[in-house]
Amino acid sequence: MGLQLPVYMDAHATTPCDPAVIDAMLPTLGRMFGNAASSHHAFGWEAEALVEQARELLAGLIGATPSEIIFTSGATESDNLAIKGVAHAYRRKGRHLITSQIEHHAVLHSFQALEREGFEVTYLPVDRSGRVDPEDLRRAIRNETILVSVMAANNEIGVIQPLAEIGAICAENGIFFHTDAVQALAHVKIDVNTSAVDLLSVSAHKMYGPKGVGALYIRRRNPRVRLEPLLSGGGHERGLRPGTLNVTGIVGLGKAAELVVAARDEESRRIARLRDRLQQRLLDQLDGVRVNGGEDHRLPNNLHVTFQGVRAEWMLKAMRNVAVSSGAACASASNEPSHVLRALGATPEDAESSLRFGLHRFTTEQEVDFAADLTVKTVQWLRQNTPDANLEYCK
Amino acid sequence: MPAPPPHGLIYLDHSATTPIDPEIAARMRDADDRFPGNPSSIHAAGRAARLCLEEARSALAGSLGMPAESVIFTGSGSEANNLAIAGTLLEHAGRPAHLIVSAIEHHSVLHCARALAARHDGVTLTEIACGADGRIDLDAIADAIRPATRLISLMLVNNETGVIQPVAEAAHRARDRGIRLHVDAVQALGRLPLDLPALGADLLTLAAHKARGPRGVGALLVRPGCGLAPLIHGGTQENYRRAGTENLAGAVGMAEAVRRAVAATDAHRRHLARLERIFLDTLTGQAAAGPRFELNGCATAKVPGILNLAFEGVRQDDLVVGMDLAGVAISAGSACSSGVIEPSHVLAAMNLPPWRRDGGVRISFGSTNTEQEARQAAARLAELARRLATSTAHG
Ligand SMILES: Cc1ncc(COP(=O)(O)O)c(C=O)c1O
Ligand SMILES: Cc1ncc(COP(=O)(O)O)c(C=O)c1O
């Protein structure tokens, strides 16, 4: 097959929708239009059956039971519901919460909203590879701590956190453990029981499903987690999330989960090989290149690199035929240097000289080679042709 | 062209949800195909998706004569209602705030208002009664207004009775007192003209799936200058008012649904009025042999196409289940998700005799219904009511 341009290599922002997911959703945009809450006729039952099937498929992906899954409009809503929901339901037990410095804004900004309400939040530091030290967590725990939220894998540098160790510490101390597993699920096996996770956020569009739908896993036994809902309304989703269900999106999420279960391990190995090839080419052909985040605990599809003395902004402009990014998509309007890189100890200059490559299910070797060549040429060209500007910038 | 009814069943539950318009579905698929990027990404794929999103936003706003920035896309009509109410009340959290809603609002308004009053010390709530005609009491609103009143939330069309509420008159009584007006127009879309200034509305809720658009997407229209506290924190989407990766296909589908519904409002009303007349004439023609029936809600102050009917001596659930067996999908009030029929808070608020309050069933027509379907459904309903009335009388 010929190379199709531009090459899409920004899977952390969003993944292409799998054609099988689109096929699964099509009937819900036609004949199967019912409201899943219409409990008195066949149109409603049919919609409900589709939703319940998706719930089972998603539960299967993470070792949960279907009744522990509720559907949302995306992981941002799931993160808000999990964090504010636990904080509000258990505020009488304590008002201290723990998270890490490198969480997604959906998590960080939820905690900041709680701080404005009088909760206290500890933001755990990370080491140079981006990992939380479980001993730091142990030291941060107080009698009043009610929730720990640490992401399964980071959306910028791909670092995978020691979930099972964190989960064990939380369980020992009777503290709920939430993890934002958005970036991890397509690539890493996560079992909510093995890792003692109590709440887990999912987004369909990061695992080859549609945008605008997600889910939250909420443990029902040992321990049972109560939540104060974010939104009020009808009794949908066990009273935790009102609103007519997005049947189309939910069916897509279920199908996406099914595909991940079937393909993940093999696919992750393939993607890791391609990512290693890309990394090797950049390191071989360029000086002043540093890979961010450790190599030991990293998502197979992530490559985050600093090109010393070259502004990411110019690279992005020059590399029109490869869609990569310089950080989290949803922070793009704010124009702040990445909080994740700052937490790793990077200088603001380094943070603004970095690119994130996100490979995915449909990435080919040809695309990897094209992206590597274009990146090398672009970096070389920028270093040669804009020395003054670069030097000035680097001061 | 009306599509043939799926399943060979007659669908008369359009207030719960409507069949998606095939042309709208096609546009959504097209958006999914052409714009796989994340609208927040700054590469070409992201920018194209952003452009598509902003076109949908302008189109939706333009259909209502509003500027594009007045539209906030949400994950449902329920979420938009919550955002309007909690977002207004919590904008100056801590300050005393009084809220007025009617007793016949949708649960996403009523429960949100009650939850705010229960959880926040400074928030107080007045619920306005309605008359036996299903119209809210305007004088009661005027009486309820106090210096601290911050928001009045009223629906334009009730989802159980179809009764049009005197929203503009209520706005008039609240005028010049610094009180915001929120209008839940979910059931009014396609049935009444929607003009925010004419209604005196500062905030207006819409849901796509009630007008042949997709499930799982709603919008809040906000008059420029109205500040709102976000309920979902995270990225910078929706101008910091609603975080989360945008449901691009959903937004495209919603914009198209609103455009079509607004453009076709007059024709749609005529179609619904004709179906309703045929239905009621058929029912009345066969009524002599059956039990007495009454329309709940003022016949002259309601939109065409939504009927709430009660038959003396006939149980509501027997009617709904019996009609389902007879191949006609109707409902007992709003779509409930628990599977049990709960007493309607709307009919309860109208102070009807018990047989009308407990026996009300909702029949709601849509654009794909035919005259023949209206006739057949009425005949089946008359026949069923007759059978049920005699069996109850004898049994
Ligand atoms: C009057 C009214 N408001 C709000 C809603 C909620 O909309 P959604 O189902 O999209 O949450 C509905 C429908 O269920 C409704 O009828
Ligand atoms: C780690 C992480 N959490 C949460 C989100 C937000 O998910 P959504 O886009 O479904 O709102 C994202 C993606 O933007 C993410 O990468």
Description of the structure:
With 395 residues, chain A is an alpha/beta fold. Chain A folds into 2 domains: 7-15 and 264-394, Aspartate Aminotransferase, domain 1, CATH 3.90.1150.10; 19-259, 3-Layer(aba) Sandwich (Aspartate Aminotransferase, domain 2). Helices cover 39% and strands 13% of the residues of chain A. Chain A contains 12 helices and 12 strands. In chain A, helix 4 (105-116) links the parallel strand 3 and strand 4 (120-124). The termini of chain A are far apart. Mean pLDDT of chain A is 93; it is low at 390-395. With 395 residues, chain B is α/β, with parallel strands linked by helices. Chain B has a domain at 6-20 and 265-394: Aspartate Aminotransferase, domain 1 (Alpha-Beta Complex), CATH 3.90.1150. In chain B, 41% of the residues lie in helices and 14% in strands. Chain B has helices at residues 22-34, 44-63, 77-89, 107-119, 138-144, 167-174, 196-199, 248-263, 265-285, 316-325, 345-349, 354-359, 371-394, and strands at 10-11, 71-74, 97-102, 123-128, 149-155, 180-184, 203-207, 218-222, 293-295, 306-311, 328-329, 361-364. In chain B, strands 2-8-7-6-5-3-4 form a 7-stranded mixed sheet, with helices on both faces. Chain B has a 3-stranded antiparallel sheet with strand order 9-10-12. In chain B, strands 1-11 form a two-stranded parallel sheet. In chain B, helix 10 packs across helix 13. Chain B is globular. The model of chain B has no long low-confidence stretch (mean pLDDT 93). The chains are: A alpha/beta (395), B alpha/beta (395). At the A-B interface, helix 2, helix 3, helix 4 and helix 7 of A face helix 1, helix 2, helix 3, helix 4 and helix 8 of B. The complex binds pyridoxal-5'-phosphate (2 copies).
